[in-house]
Design goal:
about 240 residues, elongated, transmembrane, transmembrane helix
């Protein structure tokens, strides 16, 4: 394993461990809050205030959870970017990875705003009396910020994502070895069906598929062969 690969693996492991630790801590706080609400008397009002003890505890836990979410947002973005990143990927794939990390960041921030709106309501709304609508209005404006950034990133991701889908669909067919020799398995032009060498001077095969010579097929072999044998006999007899 190279140094770059080991560094990347360590970075990924540290990021995953940190993000999982934050998620586990958030769930643990929510569980502790639920157990706290089961205690007797927590639904009583705090003296001289219209707020209950449960609402205060909920606000404290909400503040901790929101802090954890805001702290975890960059780590979630980094993990998302790493998961989508490919070292040999095309430019549009890199843009998808970058925009995906940004969208993960802003969706976590939006979740933090929504959790804060729900968790602080019990402790803040009773103090506003007739101005309770301002509480919702403030969080509505606050939630628009991450939502707008999320939609902006999503909009610029449509085009590279469509290019990626087009690449996957167009490249889904079988890709055989198109560069192989098209004439592989065919007999070479310089050889006959019987794999006997052709005449080098004329390039004509002197044997047919059954191994008979051209002279033998046309009877020339016997004719000239008989004449030559007769001439040889006459010379021997003379």
């Amino acid at each position: 394993m190279t140094e770059t690969e080991s560094t990347t693996d360590a970075f990924d492991r540290d990021s995953v461990r940190s993000a999982s630790r934050i998620a586990i801590a958030a769930f643990a706080l929510v569980g502790v809050l639920y157990l706290f609400t089961l205690l007797p008397g927590v639904d009583r009002l705090v003296p001289l205030t219209p707020v209950t003890f449960a609402a205060i505890a909920s606000a404290v836990v909400t503040a901790a959870v929101v802090s954890l979410l805001v702290y975890a947002a960059p780590k979630v973005a980094s993990l998302t970017r790493t998961a989508l990143h490919r070292t040999d990927a095309a430019d549009h794939v890199e843009r998808i990875a970058e925009n995906g990390g940004a969208m993960a960041y802003w969706i976590v921030v939006l979740a933090a705003v929504l959790v804060a709106h729900r968790g602080f309501a019990g402790a803040v709304v009773p103090l506003l009396d007739g101005l309770a609508w301002t509480y919702d209005a403030a969080f509505l404006v606050a939630s628009f910020v991450p939502l707008v950034f999320f939609v902006a990133r999503l909009t610029v991701t449509v085009d590279p994502l469509s290019e990626l889908v087009a690449d996957r669909v167009s490249g889904s067919g079988p890709t055989g070895d198109e560069g192989t020799d098209a004439n592989e398995g065919e007999p070479s032009a310089g050889r006959g069906a019987s794999d006997e060498p052709a005449d080098e001077s004329t390039g004509i095969d002197t044997a047919d598929a059954h191994g008979h010579s051209i002279a033998g097929r046309w009877g020339v072999d016997g004719e000239f062969g008989g004449s030559e044998d007769a001439g040889a006999d006459e010379q021997t007899g003379s």
